[in-house]
Amino acid sequence: MLTQDLWDRCIARLEADLPEKEISTWIRPLRVILNDDQMTLLAPNRIVMDRVKSDFLGRIQRNMSSLAAYDVVVNIAVGGTSSDPVRGASSAGSNNASVLDDTMPYGRGKLDPRYTLASFIEGKSNSQARAAGLQVASAPGGIYNPLLIYGESGLGKTHLMHGIGNAILAEKANARIVYVGAEQWFNQMVSAIRYGRQVEFKNFYRTVDALLIDDIHFLAGKEHSQEEFFHTFNALIDGRRQIVLTCDRYPRELDALDDRLKSRFTWGLSVPIEPPEFETRIAILLAKADVLGVRLPEDVAVLVAQRIRSNVRELEGALHRLNASARLTGAPITAEFARLTLKDMLASYDRAVTLDNIKRTVAGYYNIRLADLTSVRRTRTLARPRQIAMALSKELTRHSYPEIGAAFGKDHTTVLHAVRKVAELCREDDRLKEDYENLLRQLTN
Q1: Residues 132 and 230 sit within 8 Å (Cβ to Cβ)
Q2: Which of 330, 387, 413, 433 could form an S-S bond across to 418 if both were Cys, CB 3.0 to 4.6 Å?
Q3: How far, in Å, CA of 294 to CA of 278, rounded?
Q4: In whole angstroms, what is the distance from residue 83 CA to residue 94 CA?
Q5: CA dist 343 to 294, 337, 348, 404, Å?
Q6: Residue 213: in which H helix or E strand, if any?
Q7: pLDDT tens digit string along 218-272?
Q8: What is the phi/psi pair of residue 255, to 5°?
Q9: Distance between CA atoms of 296 and 321, rounded to whole angstroms?
């Protein structure tokens, strides 16, 4: 007979194998009905149902069958709207769930109460973004409107966005806060057109107190969607309603984004989030372990933070894998246990290109001394190779801007400028682009 414990163990396996963002976006919104030899997953809308069916249902069925030691039939349908997380769902609570009209699931994205500004670990890499979040939460619709947080995937942009929404709600319990991914917003707009509900769609999004849209770069190249969002943006700004956006890069670098939107996105404040430095990575691991109730020794946190340098999501993925393995085996989490459990993940980082290797390769290519790459001399014959080496370091390693800057004797803003300058020159100067591609091949082959 299928039990809640089997389902919990299945979730633990999924957490060990999948990125946290996929778990929170597609798995946690599900509710479950458990019977003797089959179970039914209830998705909050058709978008979630279709994604789970195409990408995760087979994995779920294999895990449940393995745990139950017999073939388990797993079905999925659109079902109830309970906010209980997937772990808390039960057959008793789900049998009465009514089937939804999923053609227009506005505002289904819920703020995650675990993501608060207080639980956001601050470091040099994200202090400006957190300070901006605190300001927006205390005065929504004020001078920092819109607030755009940009940076690579997995650095905490979504956490900060949820934290802002939760802080606004703490001050005004009846505030209408809508959190939605840009892809979900796009799908809802398509459904509105399909079912003739454009007016309902527009009225919903143009009358909220705060609109939080994740991954706004998804709208690049989608002209009709950008036009609709342009008018929604104007309506909210005119009404002094807060807008918070996240993007994977500075918006003016999005070639397929409407110039009007690029301009409006920078009206308020745009702040970057960069990969966390070593001390912040340790603090993040220990804090997340506390939230999960995982006993994580500090030497294990140091081991993981030393080897996994790219982003918060991969740190969290390593922690989930350690937790799941410890629960399944009953073994304590030690440094040796971590090395064995994470050996594949750690090996991939060990094979990565190093900063020293990049510096040696660039110096040899341009026939300059290795010391010239870290000198203060700014002659063109040295400055350009130095910028290229910094850009290659950002592309080929998982080091943060401050870490790369330290390796070259510069600050992080110099590295950021170098990355952007080399990208610009590669578009304009065929000779430099050829040099850059030659160096890429040397370093990656």
Answers
A1: no
A2: 387
A3: 21
A4: 12
A5: 20, 10, 9, 26
A6: strand 210-214
A7: 888 888 889 999 999 999 999 999 999 999 888 888 888 888 998 888 888 999 9
A8: -65, -35
A9: 12
